[in-house]
């Protein structure tokens, strides 16, 4: 019924702005102070506190904050909170546009229903269209049980978009609460996954299912906590002590990445002199081939200001992968780590290196490979678990990489591991070696045993013959000049000149443009 003329006269004209602000206030505040307290009591920030910590102040722009689900049944029709449990939008990090979706655990446990999923899909499509990085702040209970198969389909849409955007825009998963079921596959499809000790867990089947299927009692943290994924499984690339540290690390990582695959990583004017001598290197790397040292100290001595972002620090520590700057330009560093397993390549190290090389190549980050490797790890377990196909992944990733690539051999490089660690023969643009260097098919002792076995066995004094042959082999073959004479090493350099030489090499190669034959895609070993 239309209002009477008298009634119309008494209604205050409204611009609707007050109602708009009230609705938005409700969306921003979340369900209740009790739910916020419960979130804090678990040691977690609320979704809005996280966004404040992530973005430059005042830059976050939310979309679909007033979205609500239209599901029926199980009482859902009476509970239709704004946002539907996920906040989506974009903001700036160091002045650069970044897109985010962030679960609000206070609403349906951050679970994913149809409307929630559609918001994420839209945001992902926008991020790809805008050519800007995408961050997912995960704190949710997985598929919204009351919404059944529509929730599962919502995950499918996320996975498909994760894969579509792979190598197009950087995608970062930050796990800040539970991440259960198939939901854990989204982080696995993205470029970087962060976790926080004590508050974030990822698993495909939770402790209850484990108990009912296998009878095993295991806690959430033991099954899929940050240290499990940062160490044993390798599913987390960075593990932090709290959310504030984690979000600060995400900001640092983004400062080293381009916004998309058509841009170059952001360069800065270096405060650290480009011609700084790296005198400490000769002391940091012992000349005796089997003595251990920490290659992270070598990296710190070479790169700008000693700063780097290490990926997978706790997983496969026998290979170090890090992003850093050299002369203000971002580089990806792959280095054997002699302080763990003598720096051998094994299955895990090969997988770690392959993924890192692939990521760097996708985002135009030049590669510096620091080699000090005794070979691949021998043994029944490695062979039976597939070192051949896993080792081939690293080879494949390097051979496919078209970014500028510089190899530096620090001390020793033997056999297949020498080839795989970005030798010139698989496409490194430049290769340098320090003078006290051994490059060979294998160590001198092993070589003498194979080549001179009969002679040693027949000798009156086998030890004398063996020692003489080892010495000969070492003098003839095991020095960088043998490789330098054959063009496999471009120059033998003084370790103190390392930083200047690498910076000059990458500056020279900056305009490198290489392409692979046209094909649908390769068929990498898996
Ligand atoms: C809807 C859910 C929910 C879910 C929790 N809630 N899980 N609502 N769908 N999946 C609700 C709870 O009812 C509760 O609502 C609120 O979220 C908080 O949950 P609590 O259990 O009180 O919180 P907490 O003790 O911190 O435990 C969190 C949890 C637990 C560990 C995540 O809730 C849990 O195990 N939930 C089930 C997880 C799960 O099995 N998800 C499906 C996975 S399979 P009120 O109203 O009380 O606040 C999956 C398939 C994906 O995701 C497939 C992709 C291919």
Automatic annotation (TrEMBL):
GO molecular function, one term: ligase activity
Name of the featured protein: Acyl-CoA carboxylase subunit beta
InterPro entries, per the entry: AccD/PCCB, AcCoA_carboxyl_beta, ClpP/crotonase-like_dom_sf, COA_CT_C, COA_CT_N
Domain CoA carboxyltransferase N-terminal: 8-269
Record-annotated CoA carboxyltransferase C-terminal domain positions: 273-522
Pfam families from the UniProt entry: Carboxyl_trans
Keywords tagged on the record: Ligase
Known EC number: 6.-.-.-
Keyword Zinc-finger assigned: no
Region listing for Disordered, in residue ranges: 1-42
Organism annotation: Actinomadura sediminis
């Amino acid at each position: 019924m239309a209002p009477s003329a008298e009634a119309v006269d008494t209604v205050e004209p409204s611009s609707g702005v007050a109602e708009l602000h009230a609705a938005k206030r409700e969306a921003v505040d979340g369900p209740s102070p009790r739910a916020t307290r419960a979130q804090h009591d678990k040691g977690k920030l609320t979704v809005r506190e996280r966004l404040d910590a992530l973005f430059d102040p005042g830059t976050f722009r939310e979309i679909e904050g007033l979205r609500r689900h239209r599901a029926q049944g199980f009482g859902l029709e009476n509970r239709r909170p704004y946002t539907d449990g996920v906040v989506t939008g974009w903001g700036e990090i160091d002045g650069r546009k970044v897109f985010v979706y962030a679960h609000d655990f206070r609403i349906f446990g951050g679970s994913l229903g149809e409307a929630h999923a559609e918001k994420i899909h839209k945001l992902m499509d926008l991020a790809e269209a805008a050519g800007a990085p995408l961050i997912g702040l995960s704190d949710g209970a997985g598929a919204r049980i009351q919404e059944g198969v529509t929730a599962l389909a919502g995950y499918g849409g996320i996975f498909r978009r994760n894969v579509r955007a792979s190598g197009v825009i950087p995608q970062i998963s930050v796990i800040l609460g539970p991440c259960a079921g198939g939901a854990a596959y989204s982080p696995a499809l993205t470029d970087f996954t962060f976790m926080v000790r004590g508050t974030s867990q990822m698993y495909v089947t939770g402790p209850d299912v484990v108990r009912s299927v296998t009878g095993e009692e295991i806690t959430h943290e033991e099954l899929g906590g940050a240290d499990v994924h940062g160490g044993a499984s390798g599913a987390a690339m960075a593990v932090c002590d709290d959310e504030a540290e984690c979000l600060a690390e995400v900001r640092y990582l983004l400062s080293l990445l381009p916004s998309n695959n058509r841009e170059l990583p952001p360069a800065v004017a270096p405060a650290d002199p480009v011609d700084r001598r790296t005198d400490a290197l000769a002391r940091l790397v012992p000349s005796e081939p089997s003595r251990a040292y920490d290659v992270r100290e070598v990296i710190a001595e070479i790169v700008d200001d000693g700063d780097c972002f290490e990926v997978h620090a706790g997983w496969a520590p026998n290979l170090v992968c890090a992003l850093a700057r050299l002369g203000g330009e971002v580089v990806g560093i792959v280095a054997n780590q002699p302080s763990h397993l003598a720096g051998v390549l094994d299955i895990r190290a090969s997988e770690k290196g392959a993924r890192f090389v692939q990521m760097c190549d996708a985002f135009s980050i030049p590669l510096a490979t620091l080699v000090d490797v005794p070979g691949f790890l021998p043994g029944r377990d490695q062979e039976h678990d597939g070192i051949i196909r896993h080792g081939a992944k690293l080879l494949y990733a390097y051979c496919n990489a078209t970014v500028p690539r510089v190899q530096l051999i620090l001390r020793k490089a033997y056999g297949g591991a020498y080839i795989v660690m970005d030798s010139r023969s698989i496409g490194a643009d430049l290769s340098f070696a320090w003078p006290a260097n051994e490059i060979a098919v294998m160590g001198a002792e092993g070589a003498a045993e194979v080549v001179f076995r009969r002679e040693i066995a027949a000798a009156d004094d086998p030890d004398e013959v063996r020692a003489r042959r080892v010495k000969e082999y070492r003098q003839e073959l095991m020095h960088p000049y043998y490789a330098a004479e054959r063009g496999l090493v471009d120059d033998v350099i003084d370790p103190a000149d390392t930083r200047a030489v690498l910076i000059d090499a990458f500056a020279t190669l900056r305009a490198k443009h290489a392409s692979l034959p046209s094909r649908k895609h390769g068929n990498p070993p898996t």
